[in-house]
Structure formats: C-alpha cells, structure tokens
C-alpha cells in the first residue's frame, strides 16, 4: 500500500505527465496547443503557400499551421522533426522582406516528448513502496524537470526570435501559445513532485511500521532524552 505522504507527489507527477503529453502531441494534431502564435492584422502572403492570404500562423512541436484570412480554414505543414517557415512581409515602404524561421529554431522542440517519457518513468516509479524505487522516483523527477526546463528554454528562444523578426512590421502581433504555458506549469509540478517524493521518503524512513501502525523511530531510540 502506498503511504499517504507519497500521494501528493504522485498527483503532481500525474498532472505534469498529462500536461507534458498533450504539449508533446501539439500541431498538427492538437491545433490549440501551439508554442508561438503570430497574428497578421492585414493578412500575409507566404511564398509557396496554398492559402492566398493568412491572418494567423501557429508554431507547434512537429509542424506549423496557417489560417486563411477569408474563411478561417487551416493548412498545416507535413509533420516532422525540425521545420522552416518562409515569410514574405511587405513593409511600410512597399518593399518585400523575405524572412525565414529556420529549422535550427524548431528542431530543439523535440525535447518535449523526451521529457514526457522521463516524466512517465518517474510516475511509474512513484507507485512503488520500495525504498530504492521511491529514491529513484525523486531523482528521475528532478531529471524530468531538467529536461522540461531545457524544453521551456527552447520555447522561449523560438518565441523571442519570431518576435524579434516579425514585430517590427505593422499589424503583426507575436504571442506565446497555450503549449508554452503548459510547459511552464509542468516544470513547476515536476519540481514540486521531486521535493514531495523526497520529503515523503524521509518521513517514511523516520517511522517504523508494525501491525499496520506507524511508530516514530526517535521514540524507540533508547538514548533519546525527549
């Protein structure tokens, strides 16, 4: 039976896994869970795009999606590891500026599913009442938090680069997507889970269980004056 003081850590890990899993699916399957979102007030023409004029562009883990300014229909790029997005933006002087968000800025997004797998391993280990398994659950939780931190840093870098390249044009707004913030919440939950499992293991080691009852070891120690 799992001790009660391990339950909060398991709950944190389960929530972090669900959020990380949903974020890892991302575009083109879950179009609402993008990392960076760009709005074009007057519409934009992207070279070689089947959509004549787009009003929104979303960056996901595996693909990007364009939204038609006339009817709101979306068209997503073929899914894959690392993709590039070419832009053709007309400035205030009527000049065409070609900008490309290269695959070097999106390739690192694949860290998200890796963090998800490690989070699942930590969650599986946390259900064990064995001493070694609970210790490993805490260590793996912190490792998953480290990977999620790296993924979040890559998300920030992508957002910052897209914002830097496109915000200088009129009518263009660059915002963080829901997947960006789900990653941040997952990071916080993993840190809480690692600490909770670790402290729960310490509390468990301070007690001796016999006949279904817990006895503090400090009281059983004959040289304890308290």
Automatic annotation (TrEMBL):
GO CC, one annotated term: cell division site
A Pfam family annotated for this UniProt entry: SUR7
Entry protein name: Pali-domain-containing protein
UniProt xrefs under InterPro entries: pH-response_reg_palI/RIM9 (IPR051380), SUR7/Rim9-like_fungi (IPR009571)
Positions of transmembrane segments: 7-30, 110-128, 135-160, 180-200
Keywords of the record: Membrane, Transmembrane, Transmembrane helix
Keyword Transmembrane helix listed: yes
Natural source organism: Gloeophyllum trabeum (strain ATCC 11539 / FP-39264 / Madison 617)
């Amino acid at each position: 039976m799992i001790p009660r003081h391990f339950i909060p850590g398991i709950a944190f890990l389960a929530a972090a896994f669900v959020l990380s899993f949903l974020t890892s699916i991302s575009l083109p399957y879950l179009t609402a869970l993008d990392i960076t979102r760009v709005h074009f007030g007057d519409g934009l023409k992207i070279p070689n795009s089947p959509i004549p004029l787009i009003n929104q562009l979303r960056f996901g883990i595996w693909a990007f999606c364009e939204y038609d300014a006339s009817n709101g229909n979306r068209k997503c790029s073929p899914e894959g590891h690392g993709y590039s997005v070419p832009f053709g933006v007309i400035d205030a002087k009527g000049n065409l500026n070609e900008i490309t968000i290269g695959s070097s800025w999106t390739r690192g997004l694949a860290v998200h599913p890796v963090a998800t797998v490690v989070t699942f391993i930590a969650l599986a280990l946390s259900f064990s009442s064995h001493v070694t398994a609970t210790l490993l659950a805490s260590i793996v939780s912190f490792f998953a938090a480290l990977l999620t931190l790296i993924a979040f840093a890559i998300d920030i870098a992508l957002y910052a680069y897209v914002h830097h390249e496109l915000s200088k044009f009129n009518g263009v707004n660059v915002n963080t997507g829901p997947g960006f913030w789900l990653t941040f919440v997952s990071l916080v939950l993993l840190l809480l889970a690692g600490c909770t499992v670790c402290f729960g293991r310490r509390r468990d080691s301070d007690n001796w269980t016999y006949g279904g009852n817990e006895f503090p070891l400090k009281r059983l120690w004959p040289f304890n004056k308290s």
